[in-house]
Amino acid sequence: MEAYRRDRANDPNAGMPLAVVRARSTEDVQVVVRIAASRGVPIVPRGAGSGLSGGSSAVDGAIIVSLDRMRSIDIDPSTRVATVQPGAFNAEVKAAAATHGLWYPPDPSSFEFCSIGGNVATNAGGLCCVKYGVTTDYVLGLTVVLADGRAVRLGGPRLKDVAGLSLTKLFVGSEGTLGIITEVILRLIPAQLPPTTLVAFFPTLGGATAAVLAISSRMRPSMLEFMDRTSINAVEDETRMGLDRDAAAVLIVQTDEPGAHAAEQIAKVEEICNQNGASECYSTDDPEEGEAFIHARRVAIPSVEKKGSLLLEDVGVPLPRLGDLVMGIERISQARQVPIAVIAHAGDGNTHPLLVFDPRDEEQKARAEIAYGEVMNLATSLGGTITGEHGVGRLKRPWLPGYLGEDVLELNMRIKAALDPQNILNPGAVLAEQPAVVREVDLATACH
Ligand SMILES: Cc1cc2nc3c(=O)[nH]c(=O)nc-3n(C[C@H](O)[C@H](O)[C@H](O)COP(=O)(O)OP(=O)(O)OC[C@H]3O[C@@H](n4cnc5c(N)ncnc54)[C@H](O)[C@@H]3O)c2cc1C
Asked: Which residue from 189, 219, 418, 438 has the least number of CB within 10 angstroms?
């Protein structure tokens, strides 16, 4: 059971489950839920365990319901719909769609090792979401096992359906707290055209974030990613691909416009980057060469993970505040003496500050924990969110009440109580029975 206790957030408070059930069908899941409901035993639904917020951390005495054996994928090219069991990996759905000339766009960096069920339960984002939207934009229908063991079908293979309340959307992003997803009906689109890629290095953070805003206000690239100096160096340590270690930041921009439009768009992006002080721009229409840069971005989290223990954030702000966020994080890093690597789905205003600390250094660990809260408070003060795509899970739960406010928190609690009155589904994730005490943080340090 040890292997099923934690996700990639490595929650030190993960409990010890009573049992792990590897379901093979909706009926299997129903049987487990009925047994658990009759005895008030908690259940933690689990996909591939790649989550970064402790959403599938085990609870003492719980049954882990793992969906990793439910992996069938059925593509209907005539309606461009995929019917997928939750344990199938995102990459497997993409590959199955591609055999019919179709594409499932949402592409978390973890796409090769995360499940569709986990993607739906967290409403996962990714790199191409800046143009193509996030998971919920592709979910047409769900089969969900409710807390009393009934299985319901929501939505279906229809592009339009407004009958009843929008319950399909309610379950997307519910992080295993409202029901267990056992089948997903996904919308597919025609395959993406080969992309053209531009990489631009900047001597200042402000130049890079100003370029992001200028690009986003003038065009719709299919990718607009950011890495700061600490991330660039961590990736360069691992890949030795020749990234500029002295740059304050790098932007990786892609366009998938057809024919000459791609070259036109990339030329405009280059012009904007140069106007904002880029020290070097490089572009390529060779998809493989472009993929090497995307690979650099995808391996950023594992590369920074090699530097120490991580506290991983997912804060997002409205695009005009991106510069304030990134520079505020740099100030927090300096004030707390904790290295913070920042990578971002910059076009979405969604950043992943990675706080690095030595787990043997209790004093630095304590400072990292304070900085973790300061980053979330900074984002909130800039009109942003505490999580853009990873979910609240268990690690960000103390900050949820402050972010939502009393009335919206109570609405969340009422919905949870209506669907799971015994609180057996993923208890302790997202919502606390009693709002947790928000740690005191020094906002003045964060904002100045
Ligand atoms: C290197 C790296 C890069 C990443 N990049 C991204 C990124 O770009 N974008 C992004 O959004 N995320 C990213 N992630 C985070 C993670 O991969 C996503 O959150 C993913 O959606 C989790 O899927 P999973 O199958 O691993 O779910 P798990 O981690 O197993 O579970 C996640 C949550 O979903 C619930 N859950 C899982 N399956 C079900 C189900 N069938 N029914 C009900 N609830 C369920 C769990 O209880 C838990 O709350 C990254 C992670 C890593 C390690």
From this structure: 418
**Residue 54 lies in domain:** 2-66
Whole-number Å distance, alpha carbon 278 to ligand 1 midpoint, is: 35
Best residue for ligand 1 mutational test, from 4, 68, 107, 109 (most atoms within 8 Å of Cβ): 109
Q: Which residue has a Cα nearest atom 2 of ligand 1?
A: 110
What CATH number is given to the structural domain containing 20?
3.30.43.10
For 361-419, write each residue's pLDDT tens digit. Answer: 999 999 999 999 999 999 999 999 999 999 999 999 999 999 999 999 999 999 999 99
Query: Of 190, 210, 225, which residue constitutes the final position of a domain?
Result: 190
Q: What is the CATH number of the domain that holds 292?
A: 3.30.70.2190
Distance from residue 125's CA to the centre of ligand 1 (Å): 10
Q: What is the CATH number of the domain that holds 373?
A: 3.30.70.2740
Total structural domains within the chain: 4
Query: Mapping DSSP to helix (H, G, I), strand (E, B) and coil, where does residue 185 land?
Result: strand
Tokens of 115: 């499940």
Query: Do the beta carbons of residue 344 and residue 226 sit within 8 Å?
Result: yes
Please answer whether residues 175 and 129 qualify as being in contact, where contact means their C-beta atoms are separated by less than 8 angstroms: no
Please say whether the beta carbons of 103 and 94 come within 8 A: yes
State the chain's mean pLDDT as an integer: 95
Least confident of 10-14, 118-122, 181-185: 10-14
